[in-house]
Specification:
GO terms for molecular function: transmembrane transporter activity. Keywords: Cell membrane, Membrane, Sugar transport, Transmembrane, Transmembrane helix, Transport. It comes from Petrolisthes manimaculis. The chain is mainly α and about 475 residues long. The protein has a single domain, classed as Growth Hormone, Chain: A, CATH 1.20.1250. It has 22 helices and no strands. Helix 6 runs antiparallel to helix 7 and helix 13 packs parallel to helix 21.
Length: about 475
Amino acid sequence: MNRTPSSEYTGDESIELKSCSVDNIYNKKEPEAERRIRLLKQLCLVLICVLGQVLVGITHTWPSPAISSLSHNNASLVGTEITLTTTQIDMTGSLLMVGSLLGSPMAGWLITYVGRRRSLQVSVLPCLTGWLLLALAPNVAVLLTARMIQGFGYSIASLSASTIIMEISDVEVRGMMLALTTIGIVVGGLYTVGFGYILPWYYLSLTCALLPLVLLLGTFFLPYSPSYLLLRGQKLQAIQVLRRLRGPYSDVNAEVTKLEAMNSGTSRNWRNLLKPKILKRLIVVIMLFAFQNFCGTYVFIVHTSRILQAAGVVMDPDLGTVIVGVARIVGCIANIYLVDKIGRKLCLVISHAGNAVTLVMLGAYVYVAEKASNDDNILNRFHWVPLVCMLVIMLALNIGVHPVPHMMAVEYFPTYVRGQAASVVYMSGMLFTFMVLQLYSYMKETLTQAGLYWFYAFISVLAVLFTLAFVKETKGKVAG
């Protein structure tokens, strides 16, 4: 499974290909017991890749418990004191995106020319370095630099992991497998807020540093991508990998032929992105990432505790963050079930629509609360509304808004341009996330808190219309 992809095959390939297909029983249905075992093995490989998305989750969510910890005790592990201004607090999220902007082009190059599995392995170094620097940071400058290094590393890990999952999964379960990446992000977030609830921020960082090492060990069990092997002209090795992934009842040669036809006569260069068909797909997916960010997704993820406090939720903000994280998991589980049942497009529509309605309600509550007096008994009876709205928002966002654009980033493009296209899409997404996180405090002051929520709701309404008009379904389709 882990043969070096650069090794060359010598011999009569036609004889070997024939021997590979002798045992196929294409006219028979795969026994259900064998299918379950095969998909379980495939799931184990996918879960290794999902560790790459767990890195995304722990990195994104770190500011929520860490800033809370710093506000109570700003001592560092090396004995200095660290005090963050409001702008610097915003930068703990936004500088992550700056690093990602630098890492995304590198990810595209690595995936295309070095390979998917090796790209995932390379991502471990900056991720681990970032966490160690964060844990040992003596001042604000080192802390913020560490966040930028983390962004560089996790962007490579995220894109590599998603690409591997898409290319090794069976078509009929590919959506479910890709949906697990969002579960990984949420689990990473819960890991962070869980340990952050009991540990100071620097010990939390050391705990998070363990996960890149676990990912590195897991990558040695991953196969090389069959699509990548085909692009390198290693057809026999691609067939052998697919045979292990698809089982003896699948017509692997037909799948290989289809992949070759989709990528015939093409080269792996960036000019392919300018082809009208590819450019149109790029614009569509970039818009999905724009809607994903400007409807408030990452603001709610990164600044959960701040938003709960600002909305007047009467509970420990860290505990509230954990409760909201559980709602994210429920949404992800719903997405796993729905994405291959009703499709990616309808998941997006339902998700954005639910987000828009709930944000209008949350904005209305906050608006009334800001105008009401402190002894307003009627409003006090509805103190539960902000937390419930947050739960519904996170549930809705994780049904489609959060996971589906990441699926489209790899599903929407053929193999020969997938690495470059996905890197451009991710880079655009990171730029949008940087803008949203860095401008969060400014937008809240300018629009008011209620006005900001209504702005996010308006973006979700636009997203529904755009999705219905321009997004094409990828459910059940082979992406070459």
